[in-house]
C-alpha cells in the first residue's frame, strides 16, 4: 500500500515539477523583462519556488488521501503493494466519477420528470375536485327535481282521485235524473188516473 501511494505521489510530483519549472521560467522572464538594470532576485525566487513545492506536496498528500478513500469505497478492496498502475487507477476513478456524474444528471432528469408528473397529478386532482364539486351540485339539483316531481305526482294523484269522484257524482246525478224521470212519469200516470176517476164521478152525478 505504501509503495502504491509513493508511486502515485511520484506521478503527481512529476506533473508538479513540470508546472513548477514552467512557473519558474515565467517568473524568470518576468524578472528579466520587468527591469533590465536590476538582476533577478534568485533567493526570493527560490523561496517562492520552495513554498510552492511545499504547497504542492500538501495538496498531493490531501489528494492521495482522497484518492485512497475513493479507491477503497469504489473497489471495496485495498490497493496491492506491488501495483504500479496508479495513473490507470486514477483514470478509472475519474471514469467512475464521470459515470457517477452522468448518473446524477440522469437522476436529476428523472426527478424533473417526476416533478412534472406530480404537477400533472396535482392538476388532475384539482380537476377531479372541481368535477366532484360539480357532481355534488348536480346531485342537489337532481334531488330537488325529484322532490318536485314527487310533489307533482302527488298532485296528479289527487287530481285523479278528484276526477274519479266527479265521475262518480256525475253517475249518481244521472241515476237521480233517471229516477226523477221515472218518478215524474209515475206521478203523471197517477194524476191521469185521478183525473179519470174524477171525471167518472162527475158523469155519475150528472146522470143521477
Write the layout of secondary structure elements.
Layout: H1 2-34, H2 42-75, H3 86-207
Q: What is the end-to-end distance?
A: 179 Å
Beta-strand percentage range: under 5%
Q: Output the number of helix runs.
A: 3
How many strand elements?
Answer: 0
Uncertain ranges = 1-9, 11-23, 29-34, 78-82
Largest sheet: none
Global Rg: 62 Å
Residue-averaged pLDDT: 70
Percent helix, as a range, is: over 70%
Alpha-beta classification: mainly alpha
Order of helices and strands: HHH
Gross geometry = rod-shaped
Please, could you describe this protein's structure?
By secondary structure, this protein is mainly alpha-helical. The protein has a domain of 83 residues. 91% of the residues lie in helices and 0% in strands. Helix 1 packs antiparallel against helix 2 and helix 2 packs across helix 3. The protein is rod-shaped. The N terminus is likely disordered.
Amino acid at each position: 500500500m505504501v509503495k502504491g501511494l509513493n508511486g502515485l505521489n511520484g506521478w503527481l510530483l512529476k506533473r508538479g515539477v513540470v508546472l513548477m519549472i514552467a512557473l519558474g521560467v515565467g517568473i524568470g522572464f518576468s524578472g528579466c523583462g520587468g527591469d533590465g538594470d536590476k538582476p533577478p532576485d534568485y533567493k526570493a525566487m527560490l523561496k517562492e519556488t520552495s513554498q510552492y513545492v511545499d504547497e504542492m506536496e500538501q495538496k498531493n498528500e490531501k489528494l492521495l488521501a482522497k484518492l485512497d478513500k475513493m479507491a477503497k469505497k469504489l473497489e471495496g478492496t485495498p490497493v496491492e503493494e506491488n501495483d504500479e498502475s496508479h495513473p490507470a487507477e486514477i483514470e478509472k476513478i475519474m471514469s467512475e466519477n464521470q459515470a457517477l456524474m452522468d448518473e446524477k444528471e440522469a437522476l436529476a432528469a428523472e426527478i424533473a420528470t417526476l416533478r412534472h408528473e406530480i404537477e400533472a397529478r396535482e392538476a388532475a386532482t384539482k380537476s377531479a375536485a372541481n368535477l366532484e364539486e360539480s357532481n355534488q351540485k348536480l346531485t342537489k339539483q337532481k334531488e330537488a327535481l325529484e322532490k318536485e316531481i314527487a310533489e307533482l305526482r302527488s298532485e296528479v294523484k289527487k287530481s285523479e282521485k278528484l276526477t274519479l269522484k266527479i265521475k262518480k257524482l256525475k253517475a249518481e246525478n244521472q241515476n237521480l235524473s233517471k229516477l226523477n224521470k221515472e218518478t215524474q212519469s209515475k206521478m203523471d200516470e197517477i194524476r191521469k188516473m185521478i183525473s179519470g176517476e174524477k171525471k167518472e164521478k162527475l158523469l155519475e152525478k150528472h146522470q143521477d
